[in-house]
Every structure is written in C-alpha cells, then in structure tokens.
Amino acid sequence: MLALSFPAAAFDTNCYVLAPGPGEECLVVDPGIGVEDTLAEVLREHRLRPAAVLLTHGHLDHVYSVTPVCGGTTAAYIHADDRYRLEDPLASVGPAMVAMMEAQFGRSATWAEPETVVDVADGQRLEVAGLALDVLHAPGHTEGSVMFALDAVPDGLAPGEGLDRTVVSGDVLFAGSIGRTDLPGGDTAAMQRSLRDVVLPLADSTLVLTGHGPATTMARERGTNPYLRGLDA
C-alpha cells in the first residue's frame, strides 16, 4: 500500500493519500486548510486519481478543502453524527479565527458543502479505490469522530518492524496524547469509553497515522501514553 502524508497550511493537520500503488485510484483523508496545491502535486507525481475523500470528523481544520478536492464528482465520507458540521464549519470557529485565516491566506474564507456526502457507521466496511477499510466510531473529540482501519501497512511510514495493520486515528489518538474534549460536541466520558472500548483493543502491531503530529504504534502508546493508563480493555 502506498501512503503519503503532508501537513496542512494551518494547525499542522495531517492530510493522507492512500492507494494500492502509483498510477491507481486513491483515497484522500482529511484535506484541511490550504492543502490543494500540495495535494495536486502529490497526485500528479504519483499519477493518482481520487476516488473518495474520507473525513475522520467534521472540524474545520480537517475538512476545509473537502469541496474543492471532491470537485463535484468525488464523494466525501463522514460519520452521520458529524454530518451536520459540513453545513458550515466556519460558523463553529468564531469571527476571530476566520479573520486570522483570511489574514494568513490573503482571501476571504468561504464554504460550500460537497455535492455528494456519504454517511458512514460504526463497523461498516468500505471498499473504495482497491482498499478495504473498517469504520471505527470513537466519539469524544466530536460526536462523530471515527478511525479508519486497514489490514495493511504502508512502505516507508512504519516506525518499526512487525506491524501488520494501519489505523488513521484522526483526533482520537496522538503520539503521547489524545484529542481535546472541551470544544463543542466534545465529551470527556465518551472519550474515555472510546479509548477503553475502541483504542485499547487494537493490536500492538497496529501503525497509527494521527491527525496531528508523528505516526506511532499501539505498542508504543499502550506503554507510554498517559491517557491510556488505568483503562481496562
């Protein structure tokens, strides 16, 4: 499996491109703020064609470029509980944040929903672009936060040996931390349940591609992440 990643222009949100190999259809995961030019270069260099855009949740820094990336022909996939966030994610960040973005990028911040949005649900298996992914609903950061799990490990991204599965974790799990729960729609108790019931059961041989920051592994997080201590899977 080919996996490519680069940070967005704001908030260091990781945008991922997943494909069976060069010259194939691909999945774009979490196209955040200001990713269009870099994404176009990545797609051109590896001769990739987006078949779908996957969203781990509906926060602005993960979805801002979804509509231009979809381009009117490609569907965006998001959990039903975060579907409402695509109506206008700009409204949730406040005028000060919008003004900061406009000052940074030199143009007015605008929003339009993707033409085609597909709701996903916990336990659903998606088979798109020659890849099979399982949807793992893990609320807490938002109501509809999900992780996408694949029974494959990309060459060049695995930070260790013996890995046999990949999870794109969004803002559920980071290297040494977890997503915050104090934003609208966040829920500390739900996050604790998600960590216990969804994250901890993942095998130690799982590569974790996080929404922000470096990749990690479940073995590393189980042993060092303070937010996973004291939880019983």
From TrEMBL:
<keyword id="KW-0862">Zinc</keyword>
<protein>
    <submittedName>
        <fullName>MBL fold metallo-hydrolase</fullName>
    </submittedName>
</protein>
<keyword id="KW-0479">Metal-binding</keyword>
<dbReference type="GO" id="GO:0016787">
    <property type="term" value="F:hydrolase activity"/>
</dbReference>
<dbReference type="Pfam" id="PF00753">
    <property type="entry name" value="Lactamase_B"/>
</dbReference>
<dbReference type="InterPro" id="IPR051453">
    <property type="entry name" value="MBL_Glyoxalase_II"/>
</dbReference>
<dbReference type="GO" id="GO:0046872">
    <property type="term" value="F:metal ion binding"/>
</dbReference>
<keyword id="KW-0378">Hydrolase</keyword>
<dbReference type="InterPro" id="IPR036866">
    <property type="entry name" value="RibonucZ/Hydroxyglut_hydro"/>
</dbReference>
<dbReference type="InterPro" id="IPR001279">
    <property type="entry name" value="Metallo-B-lactamas"/>
</dbReference>
<feature type="domain" description="Metallo-beta-lactamase">
    <location>
        <begin position="12"/>
        <end position="212"/>
    </location>
</feature>
